[in-house]
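Quick one, tokens below:
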């Protein structure tokens, strides 16, 4: 972990900072430029309380109970009760990278000075992040409107000494975890519990981490797809820039260039320049069109998520200059839900295309290779069932790709009558990524085997290096053996990305 803290400037988080946060590889402080705005918002809340006018979430109940006034003596208990009652999540804990991102995003949002939260609350969030004390946050229980209430309640619960946290991988009570970070339990002031719970930080963190993973899987999928082209004696003509410039789709043109780079200098390609095959199957020929469209979706979704990471999704928002607490709906995570649904389409299609390339390599009529890429077929089944596994994973993703954002169930006695389902939309991306990484890993195993059937011809230097990387971890399949360890090893390499 770096020792020099990174300064959080509200509204200026970028991809590199978010990668560091997810990895737990940095320490964080809030810019002193935010101090005045934060202090002004806290003072504004105090003045609103002193005026005794009804202000949602400060001296009223929540949701359908917003019409219930709360006495001044009960305001601290109101905030504590909010955290406790909303800690209603179920399921396994969210992963460490996601919780780290939640801590950073929540602190960065509060640092805008629109939430009426004291600096020590923001500092406490960052203290947990800096010492990698990670609240146990159950993965299920948010509908993505009124904020990610249950997940963020579990996050906030540790700050008041309730719940559990992971410390050094061990699950411990919150009080023990706070001591590890040098903190005492906080007593929340007016508005602070609500500010900690309101917001889209859980769904946004899940989606951001999905994009971080997806970029690595995408890069490997392109590389392995190029390997399959050469192994199947496919043509590189479909990657000619003139074709893609004529259409003008940005992602398509970018991806076509990557395929050209991977295939450049292949002796295997040169060996069949004058063959009589007119056109390759779509799974080879249309890779720039499909993968380029996926890249465009990824980039668009990322732009939405980066805006969300840098914004304020609390409610009400405190405007100190006019001494107003304005109730709105920034907690509604529809932008995140849409972004996640579009990412789901891309993840599913990356896997679907890779599975089709794998199936093509199995078929001797299409590939010109031994059936199921094995000598002595019949006695050996080779990659026959590995392709079945690939099909199962790709098919599962088709069901998971159904848009989550089109569903809504009213909550809070119909006060919160339309919700985004963004948290599930983002959470399911990780199951889909697990599947697609497995599909690409299986293709990598098959493409490497297929390349070896073309010896002594060699592929491009780049593809040969990709082949060698796999062979450091997985030996060639000469006779049938347990396939699961090979698939697992290849999948790990896919998840690591090309830069690892």
């Amino acid at each position: 972990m770096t020792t020099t803290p990174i300064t959080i400037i509200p509204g200026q988080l970028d991809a590199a900072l978010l990668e560091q946060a997810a990895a737990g590889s940095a320490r964080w402080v809030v810019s002193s430029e935010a101090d005045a705005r934060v202090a002004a918002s806290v003072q504004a809340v105090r003045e609103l309380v002193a005026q005794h006018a009804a202000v949602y979430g400060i001296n009223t109940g929540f949701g359908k109970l917003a019409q219930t006034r709360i006495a001044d003596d009960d305001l601290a208990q109101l905030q504590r009760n909010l955290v406790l009652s909303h800690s209603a999540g179920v399921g396994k804990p969210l992963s460490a990278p996601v919780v780290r991102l939640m801590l950073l995003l929540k602190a960065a949002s509060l640092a805008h000075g629109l939430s009426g939260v004291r600096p020590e609350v923001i500092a406490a969030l960052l203290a947990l992040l800096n010492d990698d004390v990670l609240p146990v946050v159950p993965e299920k229980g948010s509908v993505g409107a009124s904020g990610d209430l249950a997940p963020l309640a579990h996050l906030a619960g540790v700050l008041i000494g309730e719940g559990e946290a992971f410390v050094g991988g061990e699950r411990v009570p919150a009080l023990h975890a706070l001591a590890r970070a040098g903190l005492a339990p906080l007593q929340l002031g007016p508005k602070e519990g609500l500010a900690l719970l309101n917001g889209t930080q859980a769904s946004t963190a899940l989606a951001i981490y999905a994009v971080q993973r997806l970029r690595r899987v995408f890069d490997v999928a392109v590389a392995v797809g190029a390997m399959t082209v050469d192994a199947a004696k496919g043509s590189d003509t479909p990657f000619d820039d003139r074709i893609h410039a004529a259409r003008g789709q940005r992602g398509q043109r970018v991806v076509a260039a990557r395929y050209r780079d991977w295939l450049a200098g292949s002796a295997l390609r040169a060996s069949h320049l004058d063959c009589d095959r007119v056109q390759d199957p779509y799974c080879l020929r249309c890779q720039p069109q499909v993968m380029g469209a996926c890249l465009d979706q990824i980039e668009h979704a990322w732009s939405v998520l980066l805006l969300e990471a840098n914004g304020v999704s609390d409610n009400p928002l405190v405007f100190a200059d006019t001494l107003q607490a304005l109730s709105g709906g920034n907690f509604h995570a529809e932008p995140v839900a849409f972004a996640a649904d579009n990412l789901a389409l891309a993840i599913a299609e990356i896997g679907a295309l890779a599975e089709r390339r794998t199936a093509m390599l199995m078929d001797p009529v299409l590939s010109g290779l031994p059936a199921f890429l094995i000598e002595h077929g019949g006695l050996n089944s080779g990659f026959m069932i590995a392709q079945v596994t690939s099909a199962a994973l790709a098919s599962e993703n088709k069901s998971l790709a159904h848009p989550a954002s089109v569903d809504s169930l009213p909550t809070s006695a119909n006060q919160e009558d339309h919700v985004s389902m963004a948290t599930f939309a983002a959470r399911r991306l990780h199951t889909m990524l697990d599947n697609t990484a497995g599909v690409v890993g299986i293709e990598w195993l098959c493409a490497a085997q297929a390349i070896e059937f073309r010896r002594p011809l060699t592929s491009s230097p780049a593809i040969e290096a990709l082949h060698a990387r796999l062979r450091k971890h997985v030996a060639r399949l000469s006779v049938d053996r347990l396939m699961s360890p090979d698939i697992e090893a290849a999948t790990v390499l896919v998840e690591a990305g090309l830069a690892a």
